[in-house]
From TrEMBL, chain A:
Signal peptide: none annotated. Residues 73-159 form the RCK C-terminal domain. Coiled coil: none annotated. This is TrkA domain protein. It holds the Pfam family TrkA_C. One of its GO terms (molecular function) is monoatomic cation transmembrane transporter activity.
From TrEMBL, chain B:
The keyword Transmembrane applies. Keywords: Membrane, Transmembrane, Transmembrane helix, Transport. InterPro entries: Cation/H_exchanger_TM, Na+/solute_symporter_sf. It comes from Streptomonospora salina. The lineage of its organism: Bacteria, Bacillati, Actinomycetota, Actinomycetes, Streptosporangiales. GO terms for molecular function: antiporter activity. This is CPA2 family monovalent cation:H+ antiporter-2. Pfam families: Na_H_Exchanger. One of its GO terms (biological process) is proton transmembrane transport. Residues 17-366 form the Cation/H+ exchanger transmembrane domain. Belongs to the monovalent cation:proton antiporter 2 (CPA2) transporter (TC 2.A.37) family.
Length: 160, 391
């Protein structure tokens, strides 16, 4: 599936993709955390129909409904199929230097090669977190990579 | 503590009246900016209901409003969005500057202003109101439209062009001799460079100084810093507005987001006071003679903006109707045109009423035109066919 990303300066990002059944779906993620769900119909190809306006909490809830089972599945598959690839869980401690900062600030993937595929926050799972996602004390990062990579991430975000 | 009864009553009455008026405007999808200007006109010299007691507060509040407007404009700058807009829309942006600044400059010279006044009027006609345009895109449900990224990119590039234009104007207005003007300008541009450098490289120290969990502390620090820099800029003969704009540029990422949330209510209140104050300084009796010229310039620059948006959306492969929507949505000029007129008031006093008339016309007409453009079938001159289908 191909997702196109279009930057909306000052507003956020628009994602667009086509489903297997031929519908073109758009998602506008605003900087404020609100989300718009759109469907591109026929007629004027440049104007979509607005389906839903979700606030941050609603959007996260929907994302989890749609995404959480997927992530768990993908995970199990990954670590089973690729030798040398393991997954680990790292908690953001009270004294972590990245507490209340964004995932992007850690540059964990660049520095260690390991990917942070999800953040577990209490009961909720944030699947495929974006670099802009902020980390809070008590979050558990789900990391996939080599043994050394995971140890590296632990060194970066762990309480020093 | 001396409570001034007339001050409270006058100011309260003005705010309540404005809230009623602006809620009506919102219902019609219009920006409240022209309303506030008209209210100032009605209240001021030669108006219907003078407010003498509120004068001092309005004067101070207006200065703060101008500073906050520009602080929040600077905050909108993000390196990623800027570089992408530049990559995709540099030609559109150049066309925008040529087609919209030149008529302003020409009109300034025709109206008998000196080169400084012409420079100011060029800026007034050049910069679309990002506030009004963003709101229109939202209210008319065009966020997902394919032409919207090109419109937003143009706005980003205009806002950044201000980083060069404002210091230039500030230097021109206060500069007495050529040497002095050059020096002031060089200093101001150096300050812009420092601010941009700070936003990219000095995130950590800036965050450490300003970032606090306590929202009251945060507000005090940001506002204090902004006013200090604005005051220093004014003392250095740049201008307070430019200083505030630089603070906005230097703040980035999460910090910018937090500042936006903290400052928006303040900005809304004080910018209202700023527009009121502009209206107050204008005598309505002097407004009538300049209306034809302002209306003519508004008509010309509405067409030139439409052409720019039409071209920009075309670069993104949008169909004709979308290109027309993109062009018309850019028509409104607003807060920053008024700010520019205010900055240049020292050099060209006649510019303030002219800019006010011009902004009132376009801030009202722009939304109406773009609403119509979104509704109607593509006209024949834009390549539509008689039955309204896309050609």
């Amino acid at each position: 599936m191909e997702v196109t990303e279009v930057l909306l300066p000052g507003v956020g990002i628009r994602y667009e993709f086509a489903t297997a059944r031929g519908a073109r779906v758009g998602v506008v993620a605003r900087r404020t955390g609100d989300t718009e769900l759109l469907v591109y119909g026929s007629g004027d190809p440049d104007t979509p129909r607005h389906l839903l306006h979700l606030n941050r909490d609603e959007a996260e809830a929907v994302a989890e409904m749609l995404g959480a089972p997927r992530v768990a599945e993908r995970f199990a598959d990954l670590t089973r199929e690729v030798p040398g690839l393991v997954s680990g869980q790292i908690e953001i401690g009270e004294h972590s230097p990245y507490r209340d900062r964004t995932l992007g600030d850690t540059r964990a993937r660049t520095r260690t090669g390991a990917s942070i595929v999800a953040i577990v926050r209490g009961e909720a799972v944030i699947a495929s977190p974006t670099p802009a996602r902020s980390l809070h004390a008590g979050d558990v990062l789900v990391v996939v990579g080599t043994e050394e990579g995971i140890a590296g991430v632990e060194r970066i975000v762990g309480a020093v | 503590m001396d409570i001034s009864v007339p001050l409270f009553l006058e100011l309260g009455a003005v705010l309540v009246a404005l809230s009623l008026a602006s809620s009506v405007a919102r219902r019609w999808g219009l920006s409240p900016v022209p309303l506030y200007l008209l209210a100032g006109l009605a209240l001021g010299e030669g108006g219907v209901a003078p407010v003498p007691a509120a004068g001092a507060f309005i004067g101070t509040g207006a200065a703060i409003g101008m500073v906050l407007l520009l602080l929040l404009l600077g905050l909108e700058f993000s390196p990623a969005e800027f570089s992408q807009s530049l990559r995709l829309h540099l030609p559109s942006s150049v066309l925008d500057a040529v087609l919209n600044a030149l008529p302003g400059a020409a009109a300034g010279l025709l109206l008998g202003l000196d080169w400084r006044g012409a420079l100011a009027l060029a800026g007034i006609t050049w910069i679309s109101s990002s506030g009004i345009v963003a709101r229109l895109i939202n209210d008319l449900g065009r966020l997902g439209n394919r032409e919207t990224p090109s419109v937003l990119s143009l706005l980003v590039l205009e806002d950044i062009a201000m980083a060069v234009y404002l210091p230039l104007l500030g230097a021109a207005v206060v500069g007495s001799t050529l040497g002095r003007t050059t020096f002031t300008l060089a200093t101001a541009l150096l300050a812009v460079a420092v601010a941009l450098f700070a936003s990219r490289r000095l995130r950590e120290p800036i965050n450490r100084i300003l970032d606090t969990g306590d929202s009251e502390q945060f507000l005090l620090r940001i506002l204090g810093l902004t006013l200090l820099v604005a005051g220093a800029a004014e003392a250095a003969h740049a201008s307070a507005a430019v200083g505030a704009f630089l603070v906005g540029l230097a703040l980035s990422g999460q910090l910018a987001q937090r500042t936006r949330v903290a400052m928006e209510p303040l900005r809304d209140l004080f910018s209202l006071v700023f527009f009121l104050a502009i209206g107050l300084t204008i005598d309505p009796r002097n407004l009538v003679p300049i209306l034809p010229a302002a209306a003519a310039l508004a008509a010309v620059t509405a067409l030139t903006k439409t052409a720019v948006g039409f071209y920009a959306a075309g670069r993104d492969g949008v169909a004709r109707r979308g290109r027309l929507r993109a062009g018309t949505v850019l028509i409104p000029r607003g807060e920053f045109s008024v700010v520019i007129a205010g900055l240049a008031a020292g050099a060209a006093p006649g510019l303030v009423p002219f800019a006010a008339a011009y902004v009132i016309i376009l801030a009202v007409a722009g939304p109406v035109v773009t609403y119509a453009a979104g509704r109607m079938p593509t006209p024949v001159w834009a390549g539509g066919t008689r039955n309204g289908a896309e050609a």
